[in-house]
Structure formats: C-alpha cells, structure tokens
Amino acid sequence: MYQVMKSATTMCWILLGLMLVLPGTGWAGEDVQDQPRLTVSAEGKINVPPDKAVLSFAVETVGEKLANVQEDNQARMARVLKECQQLEIAPKHIQTTSLNVIPEYPPPPRRSSGESLEQNIPRIIGYRVVHQVHVEVRNLDIVGKVVDRVLKVGANRFSGISWGLQDEEPHKLQVLQLAASKAQAKAEALVQTLKLKLGKILNVIEGGVSVVAPAGRYRMANMAMAMDGGGEASVSAGELTVSGTVTIVYEISPQ
C-alpha cells in the first residue's frame, strides 16, 4: 500500500513539473515568431558574349533498298565528320542526337465497298534514314565556314544554331552577388525611410539562375550560295543574358 502511494506521489510531481515547463516553452516559441521581419528580393542581370555555338545538322537519304539508303547516309556523314576534323573540331564535340529509319508507303488507295481490309494493307516502297548531329564550335570566327562546308560535303538539313558558354559558373556567381548586393541596399533604404533598425539575417533564399541565349540567325539565301560555292554564311552571335534572384529575410526593430 505504501509503495502504491509513493508511486502516485512521484507521478503527481512529474505532472506538476510538466505543467510548469510547457507554458514557458510555448511563450518562447511565440516570441520568436512574433519578431518583426523584413523580406526583400532583388534580381541580378548581366549580358555576356557567348564563347561557343552548337550547330544542328542532319543527313537525310531515301531509296527503295534499306541497305543502299544506309550506305549512302553513312558515306555522307563520314564526309561531314571528316570536314569537321579538318576545321579542327574535336570528335568529343560532335554528338549524334538521333538516328531514325522510317519506312516509306505509297498514298492509300481508294477502297471500294466490296474490298476487304486485308487487300488495302500498305506495302513498304522505300526507306528514309535521318542522322542528326550536334556540332559544338568553340572558335566563333569559323561558325559560318562550318555551316557552309558541312552543307557542301553531305549534310542536307540544317536546324539552326544555339549559343552558349563553355563555363557558366563564374557568371552565375556574379549575378547572385549582384542580386544580394541589390537586396541589401533595398533593405537599408527601407529601414532608413521607415525609421527602423536592421538586425541580423534570418534567412537567405536563392531564387535560381538562368542563361538565356538569343535565337540563332542564318540567312537562307547565303545557304543556297554556299552550297553552290558562291559565299559564306552570315551569322550573328549577339549576347547571352544571365540573371538570378536572391531573397533575404532580416530581423528588424524600432530605432
């Protein structure tokens, strides 16, 4: 009986201790949440010239026999790769992005009411092979020359140019630094105007960084001239826009 009363007394003391502690903990959390804060965001943006171009070419061949079509396609692509090598483009900068073999069918005939469906199953009359490659050019002075010479030796489809940077990281860090500086200046201007005091930084959020390239431009008239041996492609690199945002949360208090 004594042991039971002793255990009950101990439990009462434990519960009383919890009742005394819990309210204090709750109020402490509420004080942190109620601390006045200032949240500011800013964007950093710079324009930089690209230092690489990615050209998209394809060799497309058609014919009745698949073996002949593939052989013709391979021969044309071999000339394209050899031309790139002569222009000092490293093999690691040439990438096959797709290789498709597409059966060719005749136009569907008109089916009379008495014909069965089996009589109208289309037959293959030939094949089309399309070999797509991306060629990365790091010497921007020869971009037009690469386009012209590759089209002359075997490529018969040109999808365009995309401009980029060999190393984006330094530019991304630069715009984040710029965004953070702008956000800090914005916070200082706000507290000065509102007669407040800027406290410690509670949180910093990177909103992401993007590199936006202008669309590649290629004059189709010059392409026709180049394939006939009459000129070189005219291209314009323009500039890339690198931008990023930073959000900073400050603790603030009255002056």
Unreliable stretches covering 5 or more consecutive residues: 1-5, 12-30, 219-227
* Shape call: elongated
Number of domains: 2
Let me know the number of strands: 7
Sheet with the most strands? Answer: 4 strands, antiparallel
Q: What is the CA-based Rg, rounded?
A: 34 Å
CATH architectural type of the largest domain: 2-Layer Sandwich
Give the terminus-to-terminus CA distance. Answer: 65 Å
Overall SS class: alpha+beta
Mean model confidence by pLDDT: 83
CATH class category name of the largest domain: Alpha Beta
> What's the name of the CATH homologous superfamily of the largest domain?
Protein of unknown function (DUF541), domain 1
Q: Helix proportion of residues, in percent?
A: 25-40%
CATH topology-level name of the largest domain: Translation Initiation Factor IF3
Strand content bin: 25-35%
How many alpha or pi helices? 5
Sheet with the most strands: spatial strand order: 3-4-2-5
Order of helices and strands: HEEHEEHEHEHE
Write the layout of secondary structure elements.
Blueprint: H1 2-33, E1 37-48, E2 52-63, H2 66-86, E3 94-104, E4 126-137, H3 143-153, E5 157-164, H4 169-193, E6 196-212, H5 220-227, E7 240-254
Antiparallel strand pairs: 1-7, 2-4, 2-5, 3-4, 6-7
